[in-house]
Structures are given as structure tokens and as C-alpha cells.
Write a structure and sequence with these properties.
Helix content: 25-40%
Number of strands: 6
Order of helices and strands: HEEEEHEEH
Largest sheet: 6 strands, antiparallel
Structural class: alpha+beta
Oligomer: single chain
Length: 105
């Protein structure tokens, strides 16, 4: 499957938890029941998750090959709670999305 299809699958798997697909900055995104984005699909096919720094999920995600902190500007200004996970790890996207959804803001 392609990244878009994998993204849609994650949304479908979490729909029972009140998750809905939307858009953020022109990209597909997943929102919680309160309308807050907790995951988004990037142009390169990677998915970014709000995992909250210093949590086990955040640490584990950053250990995946090619994963990195999210830099929305591309100018070295990372958002430390958000982790970009390459499409090669799409089989872990649902678990990461669930972890992102469960963390308080």
C-alpha cells in the first residue's frame, strides 16, 4: 500500500475512538474528539505523531531508522513533541497514533 492508503487505514482503525480524518496545513491529518491534531501525513509519505518528549513511545519512535524530530519550517526549528516516522514503518503507525491520541496536551 501507499502512504495515503496506510494513513487512511490508521484513521479507520481508530474511528471507534472518535478519531476523524481532516487536514492540517494542506496535508491529511487525524484529529481527536476535541478537534486537536495528533498525527499528520507528510509530503514525503512519512507520518508525524505528537508523542510528547521523554515518554517511552517518543524514545522508541526516534530509534526507528530515518525517524526524526518534526521541523515544520525546514530551518532547524524542531518541535520536540512531534516525531516523523518514515513510511517504511507504516505497520507501526496505528500503535504510534494510539499513543499520540492517549497523551494529554
Amino acid at each position: 500500500m501507499g502512504a495515503e492508503e496506510d494513513f487512511q487505514q490508521v484513521g479507520a482503525e481508530l474511528a471507534d475512538l472518535g478519531v476523524r480524518a481532516s487536514r492540517m496545513m494542506g496535508r491529511p491529518a487525524l484529529k481527536d474528539q476535541a478537534g486537536k491534531v495528533f498525527a499528520s501525513l507528510q509530503r514525503d509519505g512519512a507520518m508525524v505523531f505528537r508523542l510528547v518528549r521523554d515518554t517511552p513511545e517518543h524514545t522508541a519512535a526516534l530509534e526507528l531508522a530515518g525517524a526524526r524530530l518534526f521541523d515544520p519550517t525546514g530551518q532547524g526549528r524542531t518541535v520536540k513533541d512531534w516525531v516523523v516516522v518514515p513510511h517504511t514503518f507504516a505497520e507501526q503507525w496505528t500503535d504510534l497514533a494510539e499513543a499520540a491520541l492517549s497523551r494529554p496536551r
